[in-house]
Amino acid sequence: MIGYVTLGTNDLPRAAKFYDALLAGIGAKRVMEEDTFIAWGSTPDGPGLGITKPFDGKPATIGNGVMVALSAKNPQQVDALYKKAMDLGARDEGPPGLRGGTFYAAYFRDLDGNKLNFFCM
Q1: Contact 111, 21 (CB under 8 A)
Q2: Which of 44, 32, 31, 36 is CA-nearest to residue 13?
Q3: Contacts for 94-103 with beta carbons within 8 Å, 24 or more apart?
Q4: 42, 58, 61, 85: least buried by Cβ within 10 Å?
């Protein structure tokens, strides 16, 4: 149902390096790129994640209560991607583990403070 999600950044090259390394772990690569925007996906017309410098020219800020959930194949992939995020400088928001029966997830904040998770069920 989700087409794509866009997160704001104040440092596009730094954020691009972070997401290039992290999203490779789920087979995503850059599918669109402009001076102020980059998008990743597994296919050109599938769901994607983008980063952008805000259009209005004001600084990017994080949204309280906003989170992007990225699907993983299994708990081992969630663990590996969470570890990769931490190694790349992300901040922990909840280590990998079961949450409510069969929902396995790990939560983190990227280098700009945006909240994401990897999950599987």
Answers
A1: no
A2: 36
A3: none
A4: 58
Tokens read off for 59: 């600084």
Fold entry, domain 4-55+67-120 = 2,3-Dihydroxybiphenyl 1,2-Dioxygenase; domain 1 (3.10.180)
pTM score of the predicted model: 0.90
Tokens for 89? 């400088």
In total, the chain counts a number of residues equal to: 121
What confidence tens digit (pLDDT) does each residue in 10-43 have? Answer: 999 999 999 999 999 999 999 999 999 999 999 8
8 and 63 Cβ atoms separated by less than 8 Å: no
* Domain layout of the chain by residue ranges: 4-55+67-120
CB-based contact 111:119 (threshold 8 Å): no
Tokens of 57: 């020219």
Whose structure tokens read 């800020």?
61
